[in-house]
Amino acid sequence: GKMLWPWALLLLGVRSDAQGIQNPLRQLHWDQDQAIKQLLAENAALEGTKEQRQQAEAEMQQMHQQATEERLRAEQRSAQMEEEMELEKEREEFTDVDFAESLMLLGGISFVMTLFYLVNDEDPDMRFYSWRVITATLSIFSAVLIFSGINKLIHFYLLSHGTTPGFKLLLALVPMLIYFFLLQLGTAYESSALSAAP
Question: Is the pTM of this model over 0.85?
Answer without folding.
Answer: no
